[in-house]
Amino acid sequence: MITRKLPLFxxxxxxxxxxxxxxxxxxxxxxxxxxxxxxxxxxxxxxxxSELVSDIEVAxxxxxxxxxxxxxxxxxxxxxKAADDISARDKNAHDAIATHLENASNELAEDPPKAENVLNxxxxxxxxLDNAARNT
Length: 136
Prior knowledge:
By secondary structure, this protein is mainly alpha-helical. About 80% of the residues lie in helices and about 0% in strands.
């Protein structure tokens, strides 16, 4: 008779363990997956652009202007996607990024580019991007 009750007991214990592990019946707040519609390009794109600018700085320090130019084209592509959203959220941030993006582009277009000038322009751009990612 004991053997007949044992499987029933194990089934009940297994069910209880499953409920505890899956959180069924928990009354506390649960984490929700972020709504992809709420992830704003005003934050995501400046972060991505800032990371690319860091890579461009490395390429410039290595005198690899071909790589720097290719990475800068990626930054410009992201800017085209993010500019309107950033402008809607913070016009001053938009204008600062646009100005420093143009300055960096002009410095990279020099023949030959002067590393110090390029790095200064990239530093200002990176500062603006980091601020936009934090403040928008």
